[in-house]
Amino acid sequence: MQGSKNAALPVLAASLMVPGVTTLTNCPDILDVACMCSLLEHVGAKVSRRKKTLTVDASGIVCHKLPREYVTRMRSSVVLAGPMLGRCREIAMTYPGGCVIGDRPIDMHIRALERLGVTFFDEQGILYARCGRLRGNTVVLPFPSVGATQNVVMAAALAEGITKIEGCAAEPEIVALCDFLNGAGARIQGGGSRRITVEGVKSLHESTYRVEADRIVAGTYLIGTLAAGGEVFLENAPAGQMESVLELTESMGAILRVCPDGIWVRAGGTVFSPKTVETGVYPAFPTDLQSPLLVALCRAQSQSSLTERIFNGRFAVAEELNKMGACIWVEQNRAVIQGKAALAGCHVTAKELRGGAALVLAGVCAKGGTVVSNRHFIDRGYEDIVRDLRGLGVDIDGEK
Ligand code: EPZ
Question: Which of 5, 6, 154, 312 to mutate to test the pocket of ligand 1 (most atoms within 8 A of CB)?
Answer without folding.
Answer: 6
